[in-house]
Design goal:
The protein is an alpha/beta fold. The chain has 16 helices and 17 strands. The chain has 2 domains: 232 residues, 3-Layer(aba) Sandwich (Rossmann fold), CATH 3.40.50.2000; 174 residues, Glycogen Phosphorylase B (Rossmann fold). Strands 1, 2, 3, 4, 5, 6, 7, 8 and 9 form a 9-stranded mixed beta sheet that branches. The two termini are 39 Å apart. This is Glycosyltransferase subfamily 4-like N-terminal domain-containing protein.
Length: 440
């Protein structure tokens, strides 16, 4: 028997996960995908993954997860991978693996092909939404390319624009038409999974008809611990004065608000000349790299810029700094801020919607700043009066619990006796806006 046959032969729930981004790439899609796969394995599901790779390969990892990599190319959009695969190929993999449900991690080329293959094979598809697509359209000259996968998704009878209209609107970068394109893709799914109330409210704006289920990606201390920082990163951090170290961790790209953060840091330095801003993460965007080089020349040793560090070394990093700061307003959940909070690090965020997404976590967060000077004052308050340090085992839902609730949501959605006119009910322990009413 083949590895896939072994999975099909047993009685476990079978889940096919399709993702357009996977580790070692650093972004929310990759983190959430890893969490979902780990949780499904812990829930004793049979799991297969279709993901971007350098070439077409097939293997089974140490956890028993079947992995099909499809050939992909790095695009100018912050290195986002473009995978080349046909709907027919994914449909063949679906028939081979025979999943009970397909978990599609985003509306990308692979995700849209999987939506169409799911419709062709009549397998339920749950689409996760982790990306602020409008930010990419606004910030990147080629950002409208993100519209094309959704534009080519399954047709429906809701009067969506034609492909010609989509191409024309995309070329003119019209937000209203772009939202219709996203809604067209989202409505092709049987269930839409979003990580926050903020994202759920955006689906209200899109008038998405698919049931919307709010299921945040939790983080656990085991994910960010176990390794120490590389020597060069550790020395660059510890060479700076203690008590004044501010850190940002994440991709350094134009939609992350780094200009706003640097302006706020100028305000901090006017009060604290010993302050240090430490930027850790990959920078694959040439325009952002040029701006960071100019900032480094201006700020000198007060600005430390490193490349990526292994996620399992983040706890070691957070123990050596004083404040986590993020000026992004495009996060659908803000996993990096959750990781910092997990480590007991005070968080300052420009986006006020990050506060309150997780009860009992961010009550002390400084958030919702309109001007860089206000943001800088928020950082200074934590530097001058740091809160008591404290760590947690996890923030949000552990991976296994998240996977269990995902499967429960799928069961509720696909139950033969479900009332199509009934309001959508989320399982206990998952947050949703009180005003939402979704059909089942």
């Amino acid at each position: 028997m083949t590895d896939v046959d072994d999975h099909v032969a047993d009685s476990r729930r079978r889940v096919l996960v399709v993702t357009d981004s996977v580790a070692p790439r650093v972004d929310g899609i990759a983190s959430s995908t890893d969490s979902m796969v780990r949780g499904l394995v812990e829930e004793e599901c049979a799991v297969a993954v279709i993901a971007p790779g350098r070439r077409h390969t097939s293997r089974t990892d140490a956890r028993g997860v079947v992995r099909w990599d499809v050939r992909s190319f790095r695009t100018p959009l912050d290195g986002y991978p473009l995978s080349l695969v046909s709907v027919a190929w994914i449909a063949r993999k679906i028939r081979e693996f025979r999943p009970d449900v397909i978990s599609i991690q985003t509306i990308g080329p692979l995700g849209v092909a999987a939506l169409r293959a799911a419709r062709r094979t009549r397998i339920p598809a749950a689409l996760s939404w982790h990306t602020d697509f409008e930010a990419y359209v606004e910030k990147y000259p080629l950002g409208w390319l993100f519209a094309l996968p959704a534009a080519l998704s399954v047709d429906n009878d809701r009067g969506r624009p034609s492909r010609r209209e989509i191409l024309s609107a995309s070329a003119r970068r019209e937000p209203h038409a772009f939202r219709k394109i996203l809604a067209r893709g989202a409505d092709a799914a049987d269930l839409l999974v979003v990580p926050s109330a903020k994202t759920a409210q955006y689906t209200d704006l899109l008038d998405v008809e698919s049931p919307v289920f709010i299921l945040p990606t939790g983080v656990e201390v085991s994910e960010i611990s176990g390794e120490t920082l590389p020597e060069d990163v550790r020395s660059s951090v510890e060479d700076r004065p203690p008590g004044s170290r501010i850190v940002y961790v994440g991709r350094m790209s134009r939609e992350k608000g780094l200009d706003f953060l640097l302006d706020a840091f100028d305000h901090v330095m006017a009060r604290r000349g010993d302050a240090t801003l430490i930027l850790i993460g990959p920078c694959k965007d040439r325009a952002t790299g040029i701006r960071l080089d100019a900032a480094k020349a201006r700020l000198g040793s007060n600005l430390v810029i490193t490349g990526s560090v292994n996620r399992r070394a983040l706890l070691d990093l957070y123990r050596r700094v004083n404040v986590f700061a993020t000026a992004s307003v495009t996060e659908t959940q803000g996993i990096a801020a959750w990781e910092a909070s997990l480590a007991g690090l005070p968080v300052v965020a420009r986006d006020g919607s990050l506060r309150g997404e997780t009860p009992g976590v961010f009550e002390d967060m400084e958030a919702g700043f309109r001007e860089p000077a206000e943001f800088g004052d928020g950082i200074l308050r934590f530097l001058e009066d740091p809160p008591p340090a404290g760590t947690r085992d996890h923030v949000g839902l552990p991976a296994a619990e998240r996977a269990r609730l995902f499967l429960e949501a799928v069961d509720l959605r696909s139950s033969p006796g479900s009332d199509a006119a009934a309001s959508w009910i989320c399982p206990d322990g998952v947050w949703k806006p009180d005003h939402r009413r979704r059909t089942g």
